[in-house]
Specification:
By secondary structure, the protein is an alpha/beta fold. The protein has eleven helices and six strands. It has helices spanning 12-15, 17-49, 65-71, 76-97, 116-133, 139-143, 158-170, 187-202, 220-225, 272-284, 286-294; strands spanning 57-61, 101-108, 145-150, 177-185, 237-240, 260-261. The protein has a six-stranded parallel β-sheet with strand order 3-4-2-1-5-6, with helices on both faces. InterPro entries: UPP_synth-like, UPP_synth-like_CS, UPP_synth-like_sf.
Length: 296
């Protein structure tokens, strides 16, 4: 009697395992080489740009997260998460280039009119990302970044407001780089706030009508001093993604002489090349822009 054993079944993935391993190693090495090449090219380009004037302050209108999600058939929240990753990349590039101040339009007062579910999603995401920024080894630590949350913070929920205040307090001693996050913000609200604060400071409310001529009038500097954005110089450049050329009630007071760049890329698609092009154009027009700023 013979015992007949079944032949061993050898799966195709077993036969290909060594080749797959080699292929994966090759891909990994290629990616590593590509990363090194990209890093070298970035440093080379930045060294060329640094010969000319570098903007001190760039403001971003981060437009197109929802359209990006729709375009890629993603959930709406995934579009905003992709937008955050894009923000971190842009912050890295800007600070490496030597830009000190970055302002981002994160959430307008008008955005409260969106569906409650979307607003809550954005608020939850904001709290989550604020906590990420405060972790050891984050981009905040890397660049010694100070955080400001700019806007009518009283409109935020207590949870979001507490997270924002915690971040501002935790980074108050940093000074090498500054990130201003405009949240619950519109320029018209900022101007009304500044005028009201200037009035309170001068105590106009308590002045009787017959003595009004003796009261000093509010000057432009009085309003500037009470702006939410008084902690930073006016932006040298405004960049709005998605090809839109509107400011959408963003920094209207501060951007009278700031060129607006509108790449067609949606915010999660913004890349280093968009930034390089904008800075090159800024340098090309630098003399003209400085002349306009100095005009009375």
């Amino acid at each position: 009697m013979f015992l007949i054993r079944k032949p061993c079944q050898i799966h195709s993935n077993q036969l290909c395992a060594p080749d797959n391993t080699m292929e994966k190693e090759g891909i990994c090495k290629f990616k590593q080489l590509f990363s090194y090449l990209g890093c070298f090219l970035r440093k080379f380009m930045f060294s060329i740009l640094s010969v000319g004037p570098i903007p001190d302050h760039i403001a971003f209108i981060m437009d197109g997260n929802r359209r990006f999600a729709k375009k890629r058939h993603l959930l709406e929240g995934d579009g905003h998460k992709a937008g955050y990753e894009s923000l971190i990349s842009i912050l890295n590039y800007c600070y490496q280039l030597g830009v000190k101040y970055i302002t981002v339009y994160a959430f307008s007062i008008e955005n409260f009119k969106r569906q409650p579910e979307e607003v809550q999603l954005l608020m939850d995401l904001m709290v989550e990302k604020i906590e990420d920024l405060l972790r050891n080894g984050s981009i905040v630590d890397k660049y010694g970044m100070r955080l400001y949350f700019v806007g009518n913070l009283g409109l935020l929920s207590s949870t979001v407001r507490a997270a924002a205040e915690k971040a501002m307090q935790a980074t108050a001693h940093n000074s090498r780089a500054v990130l201003l996050i405009c949240v619950a913000y519109t320029s018209s609200d900022e101007m009304v706030h500044a005028v009201n604060q200037a009035i309170r400071k001068n105590e106009f409310d308590s002045v009787e009508e017959e003595h009004i001529e003796k009261v000093p009038m509010i000057k432009i500097n009085d309003i500037k001093r009470h702006m939410y954005m008084s902690v930073a110089p006016d932006p040298d450049i405004v960049i709005r993604s998605s090809g839109e050329t509107r400011l959408s009630n963003f920094l209207l007071w501060q951007t009278a002489y700031s060129p607006l760049y509108s790449p067609t890329a949606l915010w999660p698609e913004i890349s280093i090349w968009h930034l390089i092009w904008v800075v090159l154009d800024f340098q090309r027009n630098y003399a003209y822009l400085q002349k306009k700023r100095k005009q009375p």
